Amino acid sequence: MDTLPGKTVERLSQYRRRLLNLLDDNVEYIFSHELAEIIQISAVQVRRDLMLLGFSSVHRKGYPVEMLIEVIGQRLDDEKEQNVAIIGMGNLGTALASYLNGIRPKLKIVALFDIDKKKEGMEIVGVKCYPFSELGKVIKSKRVSIGVITVPQTSAKKVAAQLVKNGIKGILNFTHIPLNVPSNVSLEEYDMITSLEKVAYFVKESQEK
Amino acid sequence: MDTLPGKTVERLSQYRRRLLNLLDDNVEYIFSHELAEIIQISAVQVRRDLMLLGFSSVHRKGYPVEMLIEVIGQRLDDEKEQNVAIIGMGNLGTALASYLNGIRPKLKIVALFDIDKKKEGMEIVGVKCYPFSELGKVIKSKRVSIGVITVPQTSAKKVAAQLVKNGIKGILNFTHIPLNVPSNVSLEEYDMITSLEKVAYFVKESQEK
DNA sequence: AATTAGTTGTTATTTATTTCACATTTGTTT
DNA sequence: AAACAAATGTGAAATAAATAACAACTAATT
Fold first, then answer.
1. What confidence score (pLDDT) does residue B60 get?
2. CB spacing of A190 vs B194 below 8 angstroms
3. Which of A32, A48, B85, B127 could, after both became Cys, cross-link A43 (CB 3.0–4.6 A)?
4. Which DSSP state fits A154?
5. At residue A209, does pLDDT exceed 80?
């Protein structure tokens, strides 16, 4: 079974979240164009993504919502749980901790870290905060495979190196510092300043027309 | 002069930020492979992007840093300032306000908004917080062209509609709710849950190999 | 029972983005 | 001054992603 394109993975993640909502509303079936409408993309795009899952609709009824959620999960989720740590409990880290916590049963936020010793032992959304010095120990004891970096720019590289050294498998980097990690570590970077500059550029362009 | 590809805009934004650092360190020239190394991309990619700017190196010395910053600015920035408002002063909004504030001279954070009346009049990184009810008024008086949405999921659509109604030109959406805006409004969406699920997927995949 | 209409799955096409490959230019070395 | 080396700029090729186009299937309608 082939690895899915990154863009498809992104959309599947979004499909699933919408479908879970629909399930709550007791929607049993959904057409590609309906799902497309919700996500604001094209119906072909939806069908193509689902085709990559080998998932078919029930003729003239659409895709069965519950089963589709199940199939997306089979493809996206690890069978066992994946444990996540967030490093840096400033505003951004705190926001992420509450955003991400509990949102997916197979993705558990199991540890938070901060350099500030005062935060030691504190709980945010029910997850314990450890001092940075215990990073290695906790990663091992809690089997953390994914690290989310939300520390100040200056410590980003150091934190990434520590994570890698302690066997982390994936990093989600929210600092503006591009990281350099071994190829066996999955890396996803997100730079908020770049996003803002991008919007600003297209605003400017659209006004010049 | 053609509109640049979105990906190129993203990289130009990053080049510029690194170049500004280099300038502080009195670096006068930089080779494509050096800049590439810093951003963790290929040298060809850098040269191609700069080619789109019509910007040439000084033979065997590399690209003049200061002039390159200037040229990127000419292309990315609006001549006049672009004013930005952040709507939703929870942890995420607060983090963004301090991240983004002052980072680019031509992109000014001029207003913050929150539903909570207690925050009215408060200042975060020197920017004033207004109650949500004054959105329209402030957008007009401060000539806000870009809105950053960091409110809870449930209010995202309402806020977006308000922004659009008040003539906003660009939206950066940090909620998980896909927004539907008229085509004359530039929209950039960023979903942190999707990013985390994406890393998790590629971690899983890499372990299966 | 035949026709219409809605929806899918998939191949083919188009568009966007990245990478390759290399001729070109000129500083440096012999 | 010839040979070499370091980089660039760019056409051509490759890869990735999105869209179009349409045959096929079947529920509903006539």
1. 84
2. no
3. A32
4. G
5. no
